[in-house]
Amino acid sequence: MPLAATPYGTLHYDVADLVAPWQPARLPILFHHGIGASAGIWAGWQPALADAYRLLTFDMRGYGRSNIPATDFKWSLDLLVDDLFAIADAAGLARFHLVGESIGGTVALAAALARPARIATLTVSNGAHVGASIQRVEAWRRQLDEGGSKGWSDAFLRDRFHDDALSAERRAWFATEQEKWPRDSILNALGVLIGTDLTPRLADIECPTLLLHPDGSPFIPVSIMAELHRGLSDGELNVFGRSRHGLPFSHAAQCAQALRTFLDSRQAD
User: Fold this and answer.
1) Which end of the chain is more exposed for a tag (fewer CB within 10 A), N or C?
2) For residue 88, which of 78, 75, 98 has the smallest C-alpha distance?
3) CATH no. for residue 134?
4) How many domains does the chain have?
5) Which stretches of the chain drop beneath a pLDDT of 70?
6) Nearest of 75, 64, 73 to residue 13 by alpha carbon
């Protein structure tokens, strides 16, 4: 089982390498999921990418096979950035394409600022440069206290997907994965975003950046993503109609094709 060591426990990652040995080598792609999601959400991206790119996914801290911190553990954006690079280092990625969704998108933006030489391109899906409000933390805490992980997950599913966005099987799988998230991990990870504002540093992001955004996220309006786009020196914005905060899962094939087109157009490694 591939594990990345950190000062605060290990993180689990997986590698999918289906590139034919005669194909020219390209830089790998590292994916960072968000709160309530799991590494499995990226499976639908593989058909558009796996012929040319080695693909790496991981369980973010607080979930799944990675370290589950104690209740009083001090979470921070810097910690999550360090976690991302710990995965990259363990997998031998000197430089790579980075994809992040939701909080993973915020972490990805911060990672591109922290170590720009390591990031070839950046893709942010339903994520933002500005963080959550204390009101959302309190709303999620109330949902968890009153309905447990399932009650919170049931409410979150409505924020993620239109009723007809997924097959019954895919919706059930996603719900099961989301309900596995521990209460403290949900609230502490979300707490990282309170007060986060990368606006003053957006122009310092040097790599080409692809923005993928739903037209109906209840957390991040399109106007916020447009603000992020304006702040970047080299960015492309795609807004997907009839989509919510679960965009990278409900529209996996479309998002992956947008990424492939983006990488091909930039003649990226």
Assistant:
1) N
2) 98
3) 3.40.50.1820
4) 1
5) 268-269
6) 64
State the residue for tokens 């955004």.
213
Predicted TM-score of the model (pTM): 0.98
pLDDT at 269: 54
User: What one-letter code names the amino acid at 111?
Assistant: A
Give the CA dihedral 186, 92, 234, 197, nearest 10 degrees: 30
Question: What are the Cα distances from residue 29, in Å, to 37, 105, 128, 142, 260?
Answer: 18, 14, 20, 37, 11
The owner of tokens 């966005």 is 165
Q: Tell me how crowded residue 179 is: count the other CB atoms within 10 A of its CB.
A: 17
Number of Cα atoms under 13 Å in the Cβ half of residue 197? 5
| Domain range for 42 | 3-265
- % residues pLDDT > 90 (the chain): 97
pLDDT, residue 266, reads 87
Sort residue 98 into left (φ over 0), alpha (ψ -120 to 50) or beta.
Answer: beta
- pLDDT for residue 104: 98
